[in-house]
Amino acid sequence: MRKMKSNLDERQELKLLKIEHNGCWIAFWGLLIVMAIQMIVGNDSIKNLAGEGAVLMSLAFYLLVACIRNGIWDRRLKPNFKTNVIVSSIAAVLTGIIWFSVSYRNYHKLIGSIATGIIMFVQVEILCLLALMISSKIYKRRVQKLEEDE
Asked: Where are the transmembrane segments (predicted)?
């Protein structure tokens, strides 16, 4: 397939990239927030969350692979242990709160809901930290390979 000639100059091309960037992140965080709200209010069956979940995971996987392939981690965050612990803790706290809310809404048992929130917190903390550590290791290896190729 032939690539069509762009009608945009460099300034417009950069502006379009910025617009697409913002749209991508609005979609990513919007899907995540919609899924969390659906879980909290009770619309949490797999049928209701499957579409949003598939789109969110596809977008997350694409962003992860594309960024690592090009040697990009983040504009502000460093791929180190401290950052990974902070980011995974934020994800774990939010997940714990959501699952506490879902459990309390469904069963009205405070102790059981607290236990559910803590269990989900621990699981997400460990899994997210592990995923971030593996990703940062792959990223560092990729950056080293890209620098050697230059």
From this structure: 21-41, 53-72, 84-104, 110-134
CA-CA distance, 32 to 38, in Å (whole number)? Answer: 10
Q: Assess whether 58 and 22 both reside in one domain.
A: yes
Are 145 and 89 part of one and the same domain? Answer: yes
Q: Would 135 be classed as within a structural domain?
A: yes
Q: What's the domain range around 84?
A: 75-150
Walk along the chain (150 residues) in steps of 10 and give the mean pLDDT of each run.
76 91 94 90 83 92 93 92 97 96 93 97 98 97 92
pTM: 0.82
